[in-house]
Amino acid sequence: MTIDGLWNRIIELEGETFYTATGLTFTYEVIDDHQIQPYRDGKTRWKLSKNLFEKALKFPNYSGADFNNTIIGSSYVAGILNDERIGA
Questions:
Q1: What are phi and psi of 31, to 5 degrees?
Q2: Which of 12, 23, 70, 75 would you call most buried, defined as having the most Cβ atoms within 10 angstroms of its Cβ?
Q3: pLDDT digits (tens, 9 = 90+) for 34-87
Q4: Residue 57 to residues 9, 15, 47, 67, Cα–Cα distance (Å)
Q5: 8 Å CB contact between 5 and 81
Q6: 0.70 cut: is pTM over it?
């Protein structure tokens, strides 16, 4: 899947429930054409950019120490990318 196709799926699923890599529920809001804002327990988390997701696609299984050290909000990014509705 291309980053544009992936990003379009992410935008389409705004407001749906996702799970972090550790199983916590969250949702997100689309900020603009290039960012989303995750929410968990009513509190905002990192703003996640389209470029961040593009960078994350280079990591196998969206996990590991390098992934966690490189990707801001890695648990949220992995939760979105590993979701079957996204199909990354």
A1: -85, -50
A2: 75
A3: 999 999 998 887 899 999 999 999 998 888 899 999 999 999 999 999 999 998
A4: 15, 22, 18, 10
A5: no
A6: yes
What one-letter code names the amino acid at 80?
Answer: I
Q: Do residues 86 and 80 make contact, with C-beta atoms less than 8 angstroms apart?
A: yes
Contacts 24+ apart (CB under 8 A), 6-15: 6/53, 6/57, 6/81, 6/86, 6/88, 7/50, 7/53, 9/85, 9/86, 9/87, 10/36, 10/53, 10/80, 10/86, 13/85, 13/86
Query: What tokens appear for 18 in the block?
Result: 């996702």
Distance, CA of 41 to CA of 61 (rounded, Å): 26
